[in-house]
Structure formats: structure tokens, C-alpha cells
Amino acid sequence: MTPLFSALLDALDRRMHLSGPTKKAANKVFPANWSFLLGEVAMISFAVLVLTGIFLTLFFRPAVDPVVYTGANEFFADVELPAAFESVVRLSTDVPGGLLMRRIHRAASHLFIASMILHMLRILLTGAFRKPREVNYYVGVGLLTMVLGEGFLGYSLPYDSLAGTGIRVMYSIILSIPFVGENVAFWIFGGEFPGEAIIPRFYALHVFVLPLLLAALIGAHVFILVRQKHTQMPRPDVDGHSYVVGKPLWPGQAAESTTLVLWIGGLLALSATIIPWSDVELLGPYLPGEVGNNAQPDWFLFWTDGLLRAIPAFELNILGTTINSLFVAGALIPGVLFGLLFAYPTLERKVYGLKGEWHVLTNPLDIPLRAAMVMGTFSFVLLASANATNDIISRMVGIPIEDLVFVFRLLMVFAPPLLAFGVYRYARRRLDAVGTDVAQTEEEAESRFQYVGMGDPEPLE
Amino acid sequence: MLAANRRSLAGWLVVVATAAAAALLFWPSAFASEGEQELADSFAVESYAQNCSRCHGLDGQGGEVPTDGRPVPSLRNNDDLTVPYLDLVLLTGRMPPAGDPFDNRERHVFYDDAERQAMVEWMADEFDIPGEVPEVDEGEVSRGLEVFARNCAHCHGNAGAGGTAGRQAWTPQVNNLPGIAVAEAIRVGPFEMPAFSAEVIPDEDVDAVVAYLEAVDEERGTPFLGLVELNPVFASGFVGLLSLALLGSLVYIGSRPVRLEDLIDEGSQPEAGVTPASGRRGNTDDPDHDDSADPDQHDQHDEEPRP
Q: Which residues does UniProt assign to the signal peptide (chain B) (predicted)?
């Protein structure tokens, strides 16, 4: 499709001469690489979320007071339901197009977070976070934390059985914060769990506060990107440190983005007809005190649930407060992981004594610390996530769940460091084999790569 | 797909399922007629000798499993054993063949309805097993959902997808079971499951739970593939598929050469974007380089100096 759009936009351009002013205004070129589109996919997903979300707000009722459902769904014929759940059932069963909108919203939320995580992996692995782009990297990590929160809130709003269980777990984690936990939890929930206040408050956060913040941060993210220009993949024939080479915003990249928007929209709509994203009507409303055996958070918070399941229950009484396993799993370890993410650019720069600015991406295996850090943290998070599904795995494989938890504990403690160490050694050997160390300036890194097998380098103009 | 359509489809499914159930009920079973009672009994005698007696003994006295020495309950004078229990164990494939009856994952069901009926009747007679196979009536789906959520979901999961309940105890999936098995299990409390008396769950509530689980079974899935998302683990699998589709799309969109000249007949490449290759060597110098395969040769091409 892209060639078609290219031709159309190009024909338009010839007649309107749009690229002149655009180039002067945006002055932006886009290096051609498929992985550079991941961030754009996240933006498109966000737009879809806003549009479908607006539709959903027209029907959703953010409250928990009992309402008698009178629609066509036989599961809830004339049953008293919490207003929020009742309105979701009505959306799914009685509002034309409601179920489609709900499913697209849900699918887009999954895609939003998945593409952000993949985007972050690309940034981390290739080193696009190095000076001068640290600030934008911090904005990105901030975006990711906010989106995880936004996803949790959205999961909670329907107030189905799983949502209520999730809120209950969150309440317990907040309670477990030393010294201030109880006060904070009561402040957030307006009293004891579950209370009447939590759904309206979550709603305000989910549809108003966080989307505005997200939009602002996404704007900042893109603005900084435009100011600083793209990084690019190393090419022997390009002096990437001094120039960025690629398609212009108009019409080349505009054509590609148009294709992408239509493609992603189609993918989401199609998935909503094939995949039952979020069948909350089958689960029933949240009944305080009842927990289903299938209670799990959404996949992007599996790792926190996996930590909760892995860490043995304990309580330490120190300094007149209590530290328990819930706090460690739900707040402390996630805090440490995100702290690592924030600290990493500085860490790499300090450890290798890097100097100057960096615009050309590198193979992570050229920087042993980076390869080890990504391998270590991501294998840990993946193993913790897998542990959140241990009841399902136990059924599938036929291993008793207690043994499985034991295996996962071992894996979570020993596998990430071992993997990280193995990758570190491999990367080191790779450098030693050609007798080099990590390059400290971009010129040095490029000189190793450029003009390989092409005779003497020409002087750059 | 519109919800209304889904409902009407579900309605038809209910009609069809009810008709099928009625047909099965009045279908002459393999051993139905008077003269074939003997046939049924002889089938049961033979089947018992072949499949049950190795562990339960020829006289139903119990003992231990020959291979691993686990204790085997007696079929005679056993206070725990009733006809519904026996029927349930055969109906859900817990027995035979001898395996671990506590392994609640998908099992192969050995006997068809007629054979099971023959077995249960003969064994009840032979070993003096009390009780009767219960009957299930129409139930109220919405009531069933609430009864299920309050009494069953802790172990069997919301909507009955099954789960894990501790060492070696997997709770079975219950939304794909015949209603009669659900009704039997509630009263009997097989294996690790507690029994629920009529005071806790009255008969009409049992019928309601059966109706609810059947409704879930009909409701499940999408028009294509019949997929179902009963918990976030299923969802995470779907997200994996979606992400793969995304990556495939990106590689396809982002790596394809855009060959303008194939589409444009308005002269040559647009002038916009073609700049002298400062800081860039001509690709033609590279003998290994194939121009036609390089998308950037046909792309509009820009470079800008970094600040």
C-alpha cells in the first residue's frame, strides 16, 4: 500500500509544492528501519484508545451502587448488579456496536503496552538513550509507568470478579507500605475496602487525569525527538555522527505512516472479531469476599503477581513498623527495577567513561554491560511473569503447584544472574577477539565500522 | 458480530441442545429392551472383570493397586460410596482405566451412556450400593451464576475453567461437563471436593448452576475459531499472537522498497530530497552492492546535518 500512497502524495506534492515549506518547518528525515515504527504504533494505539474510550464513557456508569439489570443478557436477567458492571453488561449485550468498541478498546490497550515495551527494548538494546537523549529516555520510562497504571485502572473499572480481586490486591499492597500504608490506603479508597468511592475515583483518573498527562508526555517525547533528530543504524557509507539520512517527512514518511495507521486499525478491528478480548460478562460481578481460582492481573502486571506468588510470606517488625512479603513483591522490587531503568544511561556512561554525543546505534554485544543488564532484567521479569501463570502451567504439565513454585523460585534467583554473566562473558570475548575495548567516543566506534573493505576513507566534507 | 445475533444464535443452540438431550433421553439405549437386560448384565460382569477387578477385587473388596501399592477403596459396605458417586466417577472418566483418579485434567471417558448405565445398575445390585442417579430440571441461569460465584468459583474459577487447589489437586473444568455430573458432584463431593447438602444448595439452585454452566458453554468463543478468554492467561496468549502480527506487519511495511518510478509516469524522480552526497560515498563504488535491492536508492532520500 505504501507505494500507492507515495504515488498519490507525490502527485499532490508536484501540484502543491508542499514539501518545500514542510521541510523547512519540520526539517525532519526518517531513517528507514522497521523497528523505528514501534513508537509510532504506540501513538496510533493511543489514538484508537482515546476514540473508542470516548464511545465507552457515553455508556459506562462509574459507581458501585446496586442497579437491576433489565437487558437481554440471560446471565443477569433481573439481577441486582453494581452499576459499573451493569453498564458494561448493557454495553456488551444491548448497545449496538458496544461489544465491538469494548473489544477494540481492550485490544488497543494490549497493543499500546506491547508496542511500548518492544519500543523500549529497541531503545535499550541499540543505545538510543545515550547523550544527548537521556531526557527523552526518562520521559519514555515515565510514560511506561503511567501506562501500566492506566492499564490497571482500565482493568478494574468493569468491577467484575477479577477486577475486584485486583483492586483488593492493590489495596493490600498499599496497606503494606511501612509507616504510612494504612493512611494512604484509606485516603485513596475513602475508607475501608471496597467502599463506594474507589470506582468513581479510578474513573476520573482513567478517563481524565492520566490520558491528559499521557498526551502531554507523548507530545514532549515527540517534540524532543524532532529537536534532537533521529538516531540511525550504522552504515559503512554514511557518516551518521554528522548527518542523519532517510526519508523526508513529506511525502515519503507520510505515505508509510498512512499505511501503518490503516494497517493497525484493521489489525485491531479484525482481532476484535476473532478474539474475545475481555469476556467479563461470563465472570460475573465482584462479590466482596469471593475470589475466583482464575484470579490474575493483566499480562503486563503478571510479573508483580508472579513475585507475590514466589516470595515466601514473612513479616519483619523493625523500627516500630512492619515490612512484609507483600511490600517486597508489590512495591520494593518493582521500584528497584524501575530505578535500574532510570539509572542505566548514567551507569553505562560512568562505567565505560563514554564521551561526547552519540547518534549512531550500536550492537548491544559491543557493550558487555548493556547486553548483560537487558538480559538479566528481562529474563527476571519474564520468569516472574511465567510464575504468575503457575496454576495453569501446573495443570497443563501435571506438576504439583508447590513443586512448580519451588522451581520458579530457584530460576528467578539463579537464572537471571547466570544468563547476564554468560552474555557478559560472550560480549567480552567478542571484543577481545578483535583486540578492542568499548569505544569511548562515537568517532572511535564509527571508525571501526565505516569503510570496511572499501579502501581508504575519503575525507568528510 | 452484533450481540443480538449472538443471542439468537445462542437461543437456537439452546433449542437444538434441548432437542438433542430429549432425543438422547428417549433414545433406545443399546440394552434397552426387556430381553437385553441380560445382555447389559453380562456386559457389566465382563467389563468389571476386565477393567475394575484388578484393583477393586473380584468381590469388590478393595485392596491396593498392584503396580504402586496405593490403597483402593472397597465397593462393599463403603459409607462414602453411593450410586451418584459411582455414576460420576464413570461419567467423568475418573475410572477406568486405572490411573490417578485425583488427576483432574482432561480425561478419556471409557463408557458411553448405555454402557455406564449398565455398569451402574449391575454394580449397585451386586455390591449393595445405595442411592439413585439424580435428575436435573430447567434452572435459572442468572441465579446459577450467583450460586456458582459464592460456592464454586474459589476452586473451579469464574465461569468454571478449572484451576489448582493445592498438592496434586487440580480442580476440573466444569463448564463442559454433562449437567448430571455437575448435579452429582455437588451432592457427593468427590475426592477433595466438599459435599453440599440440600440445606446449603437447594435442588433448584443445583439446577440453576447446571443451567448457568451450560449457558457458559454455549456462550463461549467467537464466531471464528471459537476462542474463549476465561482468564488473563488466555488473554496473554492472544496478546502474543497480536504482537507477532504487529511485528510481521512492521517488517513488511518498514522494509519494502518504495519504487516511485514504477508508479509515476510524470517524469523522473522528484527533485525534492535529492541532495549532493556529502559525507556519503556512492554505493556504486561497492562491488558487493546491488542497487536494485536497496530501497534507499528508490526512496526519496534526504539527509540533514546534525546540530
A: 1-32
**Banded pLDDT at B18 (limits 50, 70, 90):** low
Q: Read off φ and ψ for residue B289, nearest 5 degrees.
A: -90, 130
Q: How many CB atoms lie within 10 A of CB B15?
A: 10
CA–CA separation, B127 and B133 (whole Å): 16
What is the spatial distance between Cα B62 and Cα B58, in angstroms, rounded to a whole number? Answer: 9
Q: Contact A292/B306, CB-based, under 8 Å?
A: no
Output DSSP code: residue A26: H
Name the residue facing A2 among B212, B253, B286 (closest C-beta): B253
Size of interface A-B (CB pairs under 8 A): 304
| d(C-alpha A8, C-alpha A66), whole Å | 56
What are the distances in angstroms from CA A461 to CA A241, A242, B265, B279?
13, 10, 35, 6
Task: Determine the 3-state secondary structure of A301 from DSSP.
Answer: helix
B253–A290 CB contact, under 8 Å: no
Q: Which of A127-136, A251-260, A420-429 comes out lowest in average pLDDT?
A: A251-260
**Which of B5, B171, B241, B250 should one mutate to test binding to chain A, selecting the residue with the greatest count of A CBs within 10 A?**
B250
DSSP letter string, B10-62: HHHHHHHHHHHHHHHHHSPPTT-SGGGHHHHHHHHHHHIIIIIHHHH-TTS--
Mutate to test the interface with A, among B281, B289, B290 (most CBs of A within 10 A): B281
- How far, CA to CA in Å, does A404 sit from each of A400, B154, B162? 6, 21, 18
* CATH number corresponding to B34-127: 1.10.760
Contact A280, A88 (CB under 8 A): yes
The answer to whether A19 contacts B273, with C-beta atoms less than 8 Å apart, is: yes
Q: Where are the domains of chain B?
A: 34-127, 141-221
| CA atoms of A164 and A169, how far apart (whole Å) | 9
Residue ranges of E strands in B58-191: 63-64, 71-72, 163-164, 170-171
Smallest Cβ–Cβ distance between A92 and the set B3, B103, B258 belongs to B3
Class of domain B141-221: mainly alpha
Q: Which tops the pLDDT comparison, B240 or B104?
A: B240
Put simply, the answer to whether B3 touches A98 (Cβ < 8 Å) is yes
Nearest to B264 among A7, A35, A263 (CB): A7
Q: Decide if B34-127 and B141-221 have a common fold.
A: yes
Q: What is the pTM of this model?
A: 0.84
**Which residue spans within A273-420 are E strands per DSSP?**
315-318, 321-324
Instruction: List Cβ neighbours of A294 (8 Å cut-off, separation of 6 or more).
Output: A162, B157, B158, B159, B161, B163, B230, B231, B233
- CATH 1.20.810.10 residue spans of chain A: 33-287+306-354
Our CA angle for A401, A405, A407, nearest 5°, is 115
Q: CA A351, CA A285: separation in Å to the nearest integer?
A: 53
Fold of the domain spanning A33-287+306-354: Cytochrome Bc1 Complex; Chain C (1.20.810)
Q: What is the pLDDT of residue B280?
A: 36
Between helix A254-274 and helix A2-16 the angle, nearest 10°, is 140
For B30-80, the pLDDT digits (tens) are 555 556 778 888 888 888 888 888 888 888 888 888 777 788 888 888 888
